[in-house]
Amino acid sequence: MKNEPGLTDNFDRRIDYLRISLTDRCNLRCRYCLPKEGVKQVAHDKVLRYEEIVELAGLFYRQGVRKWRLTGGEPLIKPNLAFLIKQLKALGDDVRLALTTNALLLEPLLDDLVGSGISRINISLDTLKPDRYRYLSRGGDFNSVWRGVTSALGQKIEPVRLNVIIFKNYNEDEILDFARLAVEYPLWVRFIEYMPLGDQDFYARFGGVSGHDVKKIIKSELKLSPALVQENAPAVYYRPDSSAGLIGFINPLSHAFCQTCNRLRLSSVGRLRPCLFSDREFDLKTPLRIKNMAEVENLIDKAVKSKPAGYSISKSRQHTMSAIGG
Ligand code: SAM
């Protein structure tokens, strides 16, 4: 690894993006994501400490990683998150830090998070109806989330992205409401296809909707023009006429996007996952804790080299998104 200019996998994909799950725990229990009782508690000492995350991030930085996304579980339940963000930001001027959150706790923390170095925020929100939200998330308060969204829009950061999953007999009737948000606000509203991973009761009950069908419904009301967005992300974007924002589609089921995959995922217990859809993981924490950094580097190298060319969702049902942060 040391002789190479950066991390490049066996298919010539340059790996420069690391998603870090800070915790498996979440302050919501979205029905399609988590069981009612939440995830099994992981002993505190098994979870990577901030200084360990920073040490690993430094290694990745030296190998050319420039973008980090903090996710979970719910990253905002971690105490003193701004401290971690400052440390990551201090790795270099070219570090880009993003956050994926349900935004329930976002508003009061926002200034501190952005002031510490977060420059991109993705907010997960699947319904605009408070009652529905409370049901879907098993108790979440829509108004707190919406305050998080509007406060984020007031920050001088990259466009705020809203991640939305549509279920056929649940929130399909809100597709146009979400699309209109992109007309009214400078939001990037992204429709993400549900991936059948983990517990699928909700999905079985309400059914999924393909990105293609979501787009058809939006086009019944809005004229969509392709928007050229330079970001190494699986979303394909469109601009509705005279809109402030964009509408994006992430279609993992109907459109594989592995050819441009540039990312690795680090779990809260320090396991490095080369591919969202593969259960293969590499334990970085054990060598990290005995300061065997050569072995950590060796495992990172192995993980990169084991990134598959593509995936098969049907073979990867062992994990839930709450453990790997989407
Ligand atoms: N708590 C944070 C949040 O809500 O954004 C981060 C973790 S959450 C697991 C990340 C994203 O994964 C959310 O947008 C959620 O909707 C999405 N997600 C969970 N299960 C999914 C599935 N089976 N298919 C597609 N997306 C899923």
Which structural class best describes the helix and strand composition? alpha/beta
Distance between the termini: 27 Å
> Could you say what the CATH topology is called?
TIM Barrel
Roughly what percent helix?
Answer: 25-40%
CATH H-tier superfamily: Aldolase class I
The major beta sheet can be summarized as: 12 strands, mixed
Tell me, briefly, the overall form. Answer: globular
Number of separate structural domains: 1
Question: How do the helices and strands line up, and which of them pair or pack?
Answer:
Blueprint: E1 7-8, E2 14-15, E3 17-21, H1 50-62, E4 67-71, H2 81-89, E5 96-101, H3 106-116, E6 118-124, H4 130-136, H5 142-153, E7 161-164, H6 168-171, H7 175-184, E8 188-192, H8 201-206, H9 211-219, E9 224-226, E10 236-240, E11 246-250, E12 263-266, E13 271-273, E14 282-283, H10 285-289, H11 293-305, H12 321-324
Parallel strand pairs: 3-4, 3-12, 4-5, 5-6, 6-7, 7-8, 8-11
Antiparallel strand pairs: 1-2, 9-10, 10-11, 12-13, 13-14
Helix pairs in contact: 2-3, 3-5
Describe the structure.
The chain is of the alpha/beta class and 326 residues long. It has a single domain, classed as TIM Barrel, CATH 3.20.20.70. It has twelve helices and 14 strands. The two termini are 27 Å apart. The relative contact order is 0.16. The model has no long low-confidence stretch (mean pLDDT 92).
